[in-house]
Amino acid sequence: MDYDSFKIDSVIEQRLQEERQVYENFLAFPVLYKRVRIDTIQSNKNQLEVFKSRLDKFIINTKENKMYGQWHDHGRLLDYQ
């Protein structure tokens, strides 16, 4: 995927920016983590319950400054640029 072609859905971006601490934590996360988490949420935009559930979970964890899931493939992708 072209690095510049990745866009965050406006609904997700709005939720991230509702609380300053959530947005600051989000910005500090690794690029790969942000892309994996956002894509996992965005890919379910047409399934509103799944979309909302995943977005809520992401916001809660981001507020607590926690990264979750296998976004780095058990450490193999930690050097991803």
Mean pLDDT: 86
In total, the number of domains comes to 1
DSSP summary: helix tally: 4
Helix content: 55-70%
Biggest sheet layout = none
What gap, in angstroms, lies between the N and C termini?
Answer: 12 Å
Strand residues, percent:
under 5%
Number of E strands = 0
Query: Using only CA atoms, what is the Rg?
Result: 12 Å
Shape: globular
Q: What order do the SSEs take from the amino end to the carboxyl end, as H and E?
A: HHHH
Question: Would you kindly provide a written description of the structure presented here, covering whatever features stand out?
Answer:
By secondary structure, the chain is mainly alpha-helical. The protein has one domain. It is 56% helix and 0% strand. The chain is built from four helices and no strands. The chain has helices at residues 10-17, 20-28, 31-42, 48-63. The longest helix is centred in the last third of the chain and has 16 residues, at 48-63. It is globular, with a radius of gyration of 12 Å. The protein starts with 9 loop residues before the first helix and ends in an 18-residue tail after the last helix. The mean pLDDT is 86.
